[in-house]
Amino acid sequence: MSMKSLRVLVLICSTRPNALGPAVGTWLTRTLTPSARALGVELVPLALGDLQLPFLDEEEHPAGGVYQHEHTRRWSETVAAADGFIVVTPEYNYGMPATLKNALDYLGREWAWKPVGFVSYGNTSAGTRAVQHAKQTTSTLRLVSLGSTVALRIADAQQQGGFRPADRHARAAVDMLEELARVGHALAPLRAHDQATPGPLPGSYVKRLHLDDGPQVTVLQRCCWVDEAVANNTLELPALHETPAQVRQWLADWHATGLWHAGRLLGMVRTVRHGSALRIGRLAVAPDLRGRGLGRWLLRIAETRSQGCDHILLTTGADSSRNLAFYREQGYAPVPSTNNGEISLRKDLAS
Prior knowledge:
Layout: E1 6-12, H1 21-39, E2 41-47, H2 48-51, H3 70-80, E3 84-90, H4 98-105, E4 115-122, H5 128-140, E5 144-153, H6 154-157, E6 158-159, E7 162-163, H7 167-195, E8 197-198, E9 205-208, H8 214-232, H9 238-241, H10 244-253, E10 255-261, E11 264-274, E12 277-285, H11 294-303, E13 311-317, H12 321-329, E14 333-335, E15 342-348
Parallel strand pairs: 1-2, 1-3, 3-4, 4-5, 12-13
Antiparallel strand pairs: 6-7, 8-9, 9-10, 10-11, 11-12, 13-15, 14-15
């Protein structure tokens, strides 16, 4: 399960003048802030009225992701960057507001595999019929509705001239956020899969590694470089000792690609340009998956970044016979090196 921080949009749906929605949203974010901090959740309040979305005016179907208007592109970027949603909605005539339906209809894949919780308010039904109405649309968009909800009867929440829901409502809100965090982390591999390029194994995918991937990279390095340490009779290998913070430092400087499956990092490789040379490093495949061509596949991915270079360089341990044989098969030849215990290899590229 992914333990990255989650970005959660709190969508305030009502646009009526003097509507109760902003007060509900303020109460909700204030109530949830301590729990959000503990759970690693970033709450981002957003009023749908501020988006200035007209009624759906895109010519192409949202599933294609081809947007003509700037307001749609901004909305797409906002939703795509989110990991989950809390919808604060009133009930209008047994249904959700047109503003919410319109905002949902604008987009397609940006919503997929993200949890959505509902905070509703109203009179007799406390807005629950709006939630049931909205779930018909959110499920079609592959949003995952939470079981936990918060339903506020306006008469009960208005106390002493202000909006003050009872303690039970605050507890319900915290329960909803905790469920959202669990579901959001569990769905992270599905979101990553949809946003990434398919990999060589069924269900696998490849994407660039980012700073938040530091812990997974650290684990993979320590698993993979044990054999290198044994072959070269030394434990003085940086990949065995780097902390997640140190990994994050080089992830910021190198272009690193990861091969994933169901949230597990199966393999990786990194590249950086030095003048006319492309340097390749940290080519690694999980020990239980070796012998299936994944290293060769990742090396090819790295080599595609050599446009404009006239050669490629990489290094391996001087006594890493299996690595040396593999690189020779891929067209790399040893070159003189001043690094003790390492051999540099070069592959010249056709002009």
